[in-house]
Amino acid sequence: MSLDWVVLDDSVAVWWLFLVTVSIANIVLWIGLHRHFRKRSLNLRLGALRVELMILLCAAYVFGCAFRSVLPRADVQRICLFDTWLSSVAVGRSVATIAEICFVIQWAIVLRHLAAMVKSDTVRNVASTIVPLIVLAECFSWYSVITTSYLGNAIENSLWAVSFLLIAVALARLITEFRGVVRIAIGVAIIGIAGYLAFLATIDVPMYLARWQADFANGKTLFGLLSGLHDVSTRWAVTHEVTHWRDEMAWMALYFSVAVWSSLALCSFDLIRQHLPRYRRLTAIDTSRTVPTAPLTRPTMAA
Chain centroid to CA 178: how far? Predict the structure, then answer.
C-alpha cells in the first residue's frame, strides 16, 4: 500500500487524510465509552467481562466505518485508493452491511425504550419497522453492486430516507414528552435528520437515478448473479484522480463523521437512560396534586 501519492496539494489525498483522522478520533471516543460501560459493570458487580449490547453494536459501526475510511472504494465503479484484496467490493460491502444493520438496531433499541417510557404505540411501531426496511435496503445495495445497476442504489437510499422520516416522526412524538436537555437533544436529532433527508432527496438519490438513466440510454450490459459475484470479488481499479472520486467525496465525508457521531450518541444513551424520568414533562395531572379537602356540608339547625 504505497502512500507516495499522499501530498497536501492533492484534494483526494486531503480528503483521505480527513477520513482517517476522523476515524481515529471516533475510535478514541468509542474506547472512552467502553471504559465507562466497563466501570459501570464493575460498580454494579456485573463482572469485568460483561459487554453491553449497545457498545457492541456501536463498535461494529465505528470500526466498520473506520475500515471503509482507510480503504475507501466506490462499489459500482469498482474503484479504490489502494491495491489490496481488502479493497474489493465484496469485502467492503460485507463490512458496510453488518455496520449499517447494527446502526439501525441501535435506533430501534433507543426508540423502543422511549416508547415504553411514554407509552406510545407510534414510537413502538417505528422501532419495529425501521430494521426490516434497512435490511431490505441492504438487499437493493447488493443488487446494485453485483449487477452494476445504479437503480439499486437509488432504491436503497430511498429506503434509508423513508426509515429516517419515520424516525423523525417518532422523535417529534417524543419531544412533547420531555423537557430540558433531553428535549434539546431530541430537537437537535430532528434537525440533523431533516438535513440528511434534504441531502438524500436533492443530491444523493437524484445522482444515482441520473447515472442509471445514462447507463440505460447507453445500453449498458449488466452482470448476472454469478458473474457479478465473481466480479465484485476479483476486480478493483486503483485511481487517485479527483474526477473519479468527486461525487463520492461529500457523502463519504459526512457519512464517516456525522453518522458515526450519532452512533456514539445512541450508545451513550444506555449510560443515561436511568436519569431520563427526571426530564419527563409534567402533565396536568402531575401539576395539580393538592391535598384533598373535606366536602362542604350545609349546617343544620337545632330543632
Answer: 23
d(CA 254, CA 119): 34
Phi and psi torsions of 301, nearest 5°: -100, 135
Residue 74 DSSP one-character state: E
Q: What is the DSSP string of 2-29?
A: --TT--TT-HHHHHHHHHHHHHHHHHHH
Please give the Cα distance from 198 to 48 (Å, whole number).
Answer: 44
Q: CA gyration radius for the chain? A: 25
Locate 3 and state its grid cell.
502512500
Q: pLDDT tens across 195-245, in order?
A: 999 999 999 999 999 999 999 999 999 999 999 999 999 999 999 999 999
> CB of 257 within 8 A of CB of 51?
no
Select from 100, 72, 101, 109 the least CA-distant residue to 88.
72
Using CA atoms, how far apart are residues 257 and 10, in angstroms rounded to an integer? 21
- Say yes or no to pLDDT of 158 above 50: yes
Whether this prediction's pTM lies above 0.90 is answered by no
Q: DSSP character for 178?
A: B
